[in-house]
Design goal:
This protein has 90 residues and is of the alpha+beta class. Helices cover 47% and strands 12% of the residues. The protein has a 3-stranded antiparallel beta sheet.
């Protein structure tokens, strides 16, 4: 998507697709962290403390900045972003 014009990248459909990709990456990152060693077969498992991730690189930075501007994401610093709903709940 990086070779598209900025107008195409910031179109509502493209922003929706980027948000979907962000949520999927966040979910997979959390699952990966939760499935690591040390959970034990008889424990209740462990929950992941991951709230911010580096967004998928197939979308340019202006997409993520636009989603922050729209209130969907929050910039967490260091190139990391988190979902806005989670940060408001804390």
């Amino acid at each position: 998507m990086s070779d598209e014009a900025p107008e195409d990248v910031l179109a509502p459909a493209a922003l929706k697709q980027a948000m979907k990709a962000f949520k999927k990456r966040l979910k997979l990152t959390r699952l990966d962290a939760e499935s690591g060693l040390g959970g034990g077969p008889f424990s209740g498992g462990r929950s992941s403390d991951i709230v911010a991730i580096q967004p998928p690189n197939q979308y340019p930075r202006q997409v993520w900045d636009k989603l922050v501007e729209m209130g969907k994401l929050r910039h967490a610093g260091g190139g990391l972003y988190e979902l806005r709903q989670e940060s408001d709940a804390r």
